[in-house]
Amino acid sequence: IQTASKTLSGDIRNTQKGLRDLNGQASKIDGFRKASAQLAVTGQALDKAKREAGELAVQFKNTTSPTRAQAQALEAAKRAASELQMKYNSLRTSVQRQRSELMQAGINTRTLSADERRLKTSISETTAQLNRQRNALARVSAQQAKLSRVKERYKSGKELAGNMAAAGAAGVGIATAGTMAGVKLLMPGYDFAQKNSELQAVLGVDKQSPEMQALRKQARQLGDNTAASADDATSAQIIIAKSGGDAAAIQAATPVTLNMALSNRRSMEENAALLTGMKSAFQLSNDKIAHIGDVLSMTMNKTAADFDGLSDALTYAAPVAKNAGVSIEQTAAMVGALHDAKITGSMAGTGSRAILSRLQAPTGKAFEAIKELGVKTSDSKGNTRPIFSILKEMQRSFEKNNLGTSQRGEYMKTIFGEEASSAAAVLMEAASSGKLDRLTAAFKASDGKTEELVKVMQDNLGGDFKEFQSAYEAVGTDLFDQQESSLRKLTQTATQYVLKLDGWIQKNKGLATTIGIIAGGALALIGIIGGIGLVAWPVVMGINAIIAAAGVMGTVFTVAGSAIVTALGAITWPILAVGAAIVAGALLIRKYWEPISAFFSGVIEGIMSAFAPVGE
Fold this sequence. Notes:
Elements: H1 2-62, H2 68-104, H3 112-153, H4 155-159, H5 163-203, H6 210-225, H7 230-242, H8 247-264, H9 268-281, H10 289-302, H11 307-323, H12 328-340, H13 345-360, H14 364-372, H15 387-400, H16 405-416, H17 421-433, H18 435-444, H19 449-457, H20 461-507, H21 509-532, H22 537-544, H23 550-560, H24 562-567, H25 573-591, H26 593-600, H27 604-610, H28 612-615
Helix pairs in contact: 1-2, 1-3, 3-27, 5-7, 5-20, 6-7, 6-8, 6-20, 7-8, 7-9, 8-9, 8-10, 8-19, 9-11, 10-12, 10-18, 11-12, 11-13, 12-13, 12-18, 13-17, 14-16, 15-17, 16-17, 22-25, 23-25
Pfam families: PhageMin_Tail
Keywords: Coiled coil, Membrane, Transmembrane, Transmembrane helix, Viral release from host cell
InterPro entries: Phage_tape_meas (IPR010090)
């Protein structure tokens, strides 16, 4: 009953997860429809606003002495069109992203209605399946309650088994609890070994190579000295290796990846991808990886940029920034300042990219406009001047020439393009006020800030518990390391025994069927005795020998009596094992029959109730 209950509970959890996934897909479809509709409405409004602005511009141009009201109306129309353009671009990006997510989920937006009908059918079927599973679980729970009531009635019969039964139950219980505790203690070491093998496979190096030994040592040290476990550290190493990092890059990036994951609470995969991406984009060496992580953490800590926004923005801006001679600190300062001004994510990235590209190599009307402002973008050698200096000089030129907002807007659109003009205005102001320089200086001096941030965040009971858990897992890993070779030898030996048994069964199918019936009956008896009362543990141990490994059986035979082994010594080992175990079990049952019979006199009704679910 307990097994059935656990199985049903697991099935219900799986079905609930599937239902959540299906509902999630349905929500994505609904969101896509709404976003698409909003995009269409915004597109119409944008077209109308552009027409109105164009008409006003023509009227303004054709008017000999335009009034102040006409100028204000034209400016308002242009501003409205610009705001609608930004909204339209944002919605278009959102629709494209949602379409991509739907495609990844197997939903084609061109056949959205058909996929939506299929999804609704799947949701209905999954809901019906969930209801059936819940009903089945309710029936099993009712059967368990019935069995519990029966157990109370025969409790007095169980006590007649005497002190031997109590001692047996205690012995089996202690052994079982001890075994489970031992398994749990060794599991961190087992997992650590598995992941080290995966890391070795990804890198394509030998297990005893200096690279693997160094990486293993690093993971253990991080597990011993931080809130992260050795298993966490190895997971980070694998992620970095799969991103293309060699052993040296892995050693450099692993500590900061763990610290970033602890500080920003995002996955190691996401942090490793951002780190390695920025290292590649700015062509920095391995010894700069920790600094990259500190710059990213400081950007999220000192500006309004969050992880997703910063990651999206740098994806667009970083490659162009490197070519323009802009450092990672300066790029982060630009992106952070834009996030403070509510220009976020990909909009901040594309805006920064456009500004850097236009200032690095201005052409045509953009070149003429910059020249009119009296600003130079390159030095006498033809190299691009510092971007922040160019932005400051453009802002000073606007102020010096007393240019109005409309004139400034025209210059901005001519130089940077319509979409990037808003971002350019923010960065020019930030450069002029010194904000970009202050942020850049803070980011350059950010070494060690991520680690400090983690220490502050871990300075509480939760952090203490994580460190305790990490230390506990370190003990399990040490113990597993000491026992791994013995455990592997035992497992390999057991595998050989099982293969021999399989070969014997293939050659002796008739006899194997008979022995299988005997062993199955014995195993059922073990389940009955063990599940109901754990009485007469020597009997349980004797019958358990039927399914034990051959080496263990040898010990059981010796305990039962050397005469059994001698009498069956000429028979091949599978028959010997089963026969000896049955004889040993029979001898033990005979010896302890009095307490066993006293017990079974009160448990027949319980056995029938226990097997009721099987009959159903």
